[in-house]
Specification:
Blueprint: E1 33-36, E2 41-43, E3 46-47, E4 51-54, E5 57-59, E6 62-63, E7 66-69, E8 74-76, E9 79-86, E10 89-91, E11 94-101, E12 106-108, E13 111-118, E14 123-125, E15 128-130, H1 131-140, H2 161-164
Parallel strand pairs: 1-4, 2-5, 3-6, 4-7, 5-8, 6-9, 7-9, 8-10, 9-11, 10-12, 11-13, 12-14, 13-15
């Protein structure tokens, strides 16, 4: 009744392709993410320019902008990210600006953070270091002494106010 194409069935015109996404600046693509599923085992380092979701096993270092780790996943290596939500097992150093350790998480290694949230039941077996403390220690570390002769302290042979009273 409302179809003006009575004898044609469906529209025969080709479908229009979707519009191209706007040009991106920088390394990460906005709205993009990569997923390592629960059946994936990676042996080697993983680097992602976009957000990364890991449900499988990684035997190597993980470096990304934002990490979401599933409760059943395992990472055997260091984790470096701006933002991370850890729910599985990590054996290695974790260096994240904004870190959330969920109740199912188990981290065995040192954790460097700027902001941290540890849910009740979350487990960390290692040292916690605030990033500003690490930066202050690096700035306060004395420079190595210059090579060459060291000054020698010489006591004068004549009497002074300090060594007059000793005699």
């Amino acid at each position: 009744m409302f179809n003006s194409n009575r004898g044609r069935g469906r529209d025969e015109r080709p479908a229009m392709p979707p519009p191209a996404p706007p040009a991106q600046t920088g390394g990460a693509k906005r709205g993009m993410f990569s997923v390592l599923g629960p059946d994936v085992i990676v042996t080697g380092n993983v680097t992602a320019s976009s957000d990364l979701h890991i449900d499988g096993r990684v035997e190597g270092d993980v470096n990304c902008g934002s990490l979401a780790q599933g409760a059943e996943s395992q990472i055997f290596g260091s984790v470096t990210a701006e933002v991370a939500r850890i729910a599985g097992a990590v054996e290695g150093t974790v260096r994240v600006r904004n870190l959330t350790v969920e109740r199912s998480a188990k981290i065995s290694g040192d954790v460097e953070y700027e902001n941290i949230t540890i849910e009740n039941g979350g487990h960390i077996d290692g040292r916690l270091k605030h990033m500003s403390t690490i930066q202050q220690q690096q700035q306060a570390a004395p420079a190595a002494p210059a090579a060459g002769p060291r000054p020698v302290e010489v006591t004068p042979p004549y009497p002074t106010a300090a060594n007059e009273h000793a005699a």
